[in-house]
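Changelog excerpt

This revision adds worked examples to the README so contributors can see how folded entries look when concatenated. The first example is reproduced verbatim below.
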Amino acid sequence: MQPFATKLWNRNFNLLIIGQIISLFGNMIISFALPLYIFSISDSPALFGLVMGLPYISLLLLSPIGGIIADRLRKQRIMFWLDASTTALILLYMVVSGLTAYIVPIVIVKLLALNAIQGMYIPTVQASVPLLVPGEKLTSGNAIVGVVNSLSGMVGMAVAGFVFGRFGLTPILIIGAICFAITAIMDLLIRMPYKKRDSSGGVLKIVKEDLTQSVRYATKEKPILAKVVIIVFFMVLMLASVIMVGQPVLVYQYLDMGMEHVGISQSLMMIGAVIGGIIAGTMGEKLTIKKSFIVIAIGSIFILLKGIIFLVGTPYFTAYIVVTATCAIVLMTVQIFNVAAITFVQKNTPSEIVGKVLSIIMVLPFLAQAIGQVLYGALFEGFYSMPWIVIIATAVMVAAIAIFSQFINWKSGNETADISTQQTSSMQA
């Protein structure tokens, strides 16, 4: 199915982007504030990592289902119902949390539900981009989505850290509910091409056939896609986890600063991701999956610098500034790589099955986030007096993966051709 847009910035893509800004902002302030709330009352990095990592189970399980739904139903309607459901869940959480003293289980359940919805929402958005922008602008479209994600995350973390530190959790929940309600209304205004597919045979049969088709395509017909996701798995396992778990722990516990400083640090870090998205969009078709690993290697150098800062005993405020800056640079490199990887998958997958394939491919990175955040929470608690050991070891392993990736034959995937209209044997089966 061909995109029906002739230019990048068009009405429907604009609505998608504006909705993403509002929705992701609401999601970020809640997802960031709830684990911080648990960390502030427990002072346990291990529990903090557990609360961050465990909810990924639902995202992991629902992502493939989200891909199937995205390829079979109208995507704008899917996004509407997911945003509306999130609004209702936030309001329900506010009621339930006020009636029980068992805070940790309630927070985990809330995050499980939120991630379950995100597991269906993310592949729907990613599958929508090829339909809303011209094929030659696909890299730029993905880069814009990445920049929007980063900007929303940056502002969301800053607002969450400040509001939580000053006023507590309730205002954050109210803001989040309003954001999702507004986005749900905007979803109804988006128009995109839709081709109804055969849905006979029952739900279980459809799910089985679609999952089988997606796995076969990514492993048999285009095995290069499986190689991409394996490398992404290890990148997320280490880079994302050492930053998203390590930075709040190091700032709040090791540098003995308040939650406001945690929010500011996390927000400033996201500037790097914004810059990375801008760079990726500027490079356009020049950005390839093979070249993107160079920036990951650069990122490992700055993770190493972060470890050295804690090894040599730098003054606290200086350490705060330097580690925030290094993490920003690392997130910049990660964003560039993410845009290259997503574009690579989209260009090597027919649009009729891109939602399913993307959701299957995202399962391993989601699993990596779940494992990594629990693991790094335990590591930072175990090496409380020597956090540099964890950070430097991570830098070395990431550098090794970046070097190893250069031995892969990336030419087996076509990075320049737009195959959105191709018919694959798996689709004919």
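The second example, added in the same revision:
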Amino acid sequence: MARFIITTKHVKNSNGIRIEPGMRVEVITQTMSNPVITNGGQVVADAFMRIYGIDIKKAGCLNMVELDVVKV
């Protein structure tokens, strides 16, 4: 198991969703690979929906340009 902290890097307004820099979620995965690119980033999208109530996928922010991933 691996624990990752995913943090947004930039301000973005897209599809009626506002993303602020510093929005942060923590996910635990079964694999050691990057959760943003594994399985379409679904665990990350679910975490942002659960914590902030936003669909980060719909906002177009579910990528390595917009997110910083740190393995803890």
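Reviewer comment on example two: The chain has one helix and five strands. The mean pLDDT is 95.
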